[in-house]
Amino acid sequence: MTKLKLTALLACMLSSVAYADTDVKLYGKVDLAMQYMKAPGKSAVVSMENQTSRWGLMIKEQLNADWAVKAYLEAGFSADTGAESTAGVAFARRSILAIYNDKIGEIGFGRMGTVQSISSPYGIGLPNIDPFRTAYGPAYEIEGSIAGDGRVNNAIAWLSNKMNGLRIGVSYSLGTDSDDRTVPQNNRAISLAVNYEVGPLLIDFGGSQFRWGKLPASSFSKTMSKADAAKLGNRKNSEEYFAGFRLNATDSTTLYFAAQYMKNWRTFYYWMPKNEAVKGDSTTAGNQNGVDGWGLNLGFRQKLSGNLTWVGAAGYTDASLKTAQGVKENGERLRFATALEYSLTKRTSVYATAAYGRNYGQLIKYSGGKNLYTGMVGMAHWF
């Protein structure tokens, strides 16, 4: 064999080995804060609060120049106690196996946030139009005024690559909790999110539908009549539609706006009809109706210096709920939130926040009171 042929053979072998190599990255975030909270008629509470601390693995194997296999595993933990966030579930935040192509984008399978949710890697809906970038909890982030999908099991998601500023994401769950083959309409979820970015402006819109289906008989009290169980057991589908934008007005100022309409929504943070008891029973799913209404969220991010950023947001929600007993309840929520974030390094920051929420109507009994004051001082470190 000539030296030239040997060199070519070795080059081909090394090229194949390079594509077969698996890249494994460990990452995470440790975030703790001292929180002050004051609710009506109650004493102020000062506590140490875990702020979505997590760790995870990102795994990638390049199959060839066009195709790759990916896996995402992420677990939450409480930095103040060391306990896992979801007892007994190793990777509750995400557990995904995906295939990627540089032309069609990525298709993922497993447990994940929908494309409309605030959860990575496929959440391209609400995160882009949230001034707080989904940090500090619902008193601050966009889900305090706009209903979000959350995470689902048994899901399939497609996320396109950017095409002249356009990006599309679609996700479908075969069973948000477990895959019920005998009643295929139960717990199905489909979500769509679309981004279009041109210059300093990003436009964001989409929506979701959750098909809840009928509840099993075990969900109801043994003393409930069959007629009442039949009336309450068929939960109406939840729907929501949202739109918004993010505008980089200047090099140091970014503006945000979001609006949403929801129908029979069951997971709005401050008003969860699924938690309503049926005739004194402790069931958590005894209402066929959800929350109807609309919400607005607007805010800004202002860089005050190279390391210091000021964030602010205001949100409003106007909604109603028809209870299991047929009584219509009306409620409104108005909230304001602000934060100062200071970057000590690229991976470590300190922050101080304050938020005020005011609830009206029947929403008071679901949200813990009329007025709620919150403040935090904390530190976050990414690794």
UniProtKB/TrEMBL annotation:
Signal peptide interval: 1-20
Assigned GO CC terms: cell outer membrane; pore complex
Membrane disposition: Multi-pass membrane protein
CDD domains, A to Z: gram_neg_porins
Subcellular localization: Cell outer membrane
Ribonucleoprotein keyword on record: no
GO MF term set: porin activity
Transmembrane regions: none
Porin domain boundaries: 8-359
InterPro entries xrefs: Gram-neg_bact_OMP, Gram_neg_porin_domain, Porin_dom_sf
Keywords in alphabetical order: Cell outer membrane, Ion transport, Membrane, Porin, Signal, Transmembrane, Transmembrane beta strand, Transport
GO terms (BP aspect): monoatomic ion transport
Assembly mode: Homotrimer.
Protein's UniProt name: Porin
